[in-house]
Automatic annotation (TrEMBL):
Lineage of source species: Eukaryota, Metazoa, Ecdysozoa, Arthropoda, Hexapoda
Annotated ranges, domain RNase H type-1: 1-57
Domain of life: Eukaryota
Protein name per Swiss-Prot or TrEMBL: RNase H type-1 domain-containing protein
Organism per entry: Allacma fusca
GO MF term set: nucleic acid binding; RNA-DNA hybrid ribonuclease activity
């Protein structure tokens, strides 16, 4: 430190801080910087050692390992960066996925919460997001319905038609999804609990949920 200060060229933050402290001290004092051997009974040095020991022994003191000087990083910053890294990886996996997700443009926020929901809710949401729901369009394709059309007669009974457009379910849609008729983008942004509530109220999946 002393050698570095003498060189007149400051290359690190810790040196700059040291330099500034000495300058401030020198405003009203005569300051002599002198090297002393450590652990040799010099009172100031012993006090500094004692304070350092006390600090590192404290219960709430974060421990750091690695080459000094240690630059402390707040736990929140580390957590935020880990989260960002995981989100990025999630997006990559999504982009490279071969599965086609027609209804959702990207990974859903908070999808992890699906796992914590009941098995019933998880099944409903899987139907919804995959588009393979027990509705006429899909049932017809696998031979379980005579027609792909919806009862309303306006369109094929798909997940988008059922959740967003079918006039037979305007009431349930208004109650649980807050819109009478919606566009398909609503499925990606709706609360999962609201989607589940709407599906349960519409009773259209019930045969497959028993
Ligand atoms: Zn319909």
């Amino acid at each position: 430190m002393i050698t570095a200060l003498q060189s007149g060229c400051i290359t690190s933050r810790i040196l700059l801080d040291g330099h500034d402290y000495l300058q401030r001290l020198a405003l009203n004092n005569k300051v002599v910087v002198e090297w002393i051997p450590g652990h040799a009974g010099h009172s100031g040095n012993e006090l500094a050692d004692e304070l350092a020991r006390k600090y590192t022994r404290g219960d709430n003191v974060p421990r750091a390992y690695g080459p000094e000087p240690i630059v402390p990083i707040a736990y929140a910053v580390v957590r935020e960066n880990v989260k960002k890294g995981l989100d990025k990886r999630h997006q990559e996996i999504w982009r490279n996925s071969k599965i086609k997700h027609k209804l959702i443009p990207g990974p859903l926020k908070g999808t992890g919460t699906v796992v914590k929901k009941s098995r019933l809710a998880t099944r409903i949401l899987t139907y919804v997001y995959s588009g393979h729901a027990p509705l006429n369009k899909y049932l017809y394709r696998i031979g379980l319905s005579d027609s792909p059309s919806c009862k309303c007669g306006l369109d094929d009974e798909t997940v988008v038609h059922h959740i967003c457009e079918c006039p037979l379910f305007i009431r349930q849609r208004l109650v649980y999804l807050y819109e009478g008729i919606a566009n398909k983008g609503m499925i990606a942004i709706a609360q999962q609990s609201d989607l589940v509530a709407f599906i349960m109220a519409s009773k259209r999946f019930s045969r497959s949920l028993e």
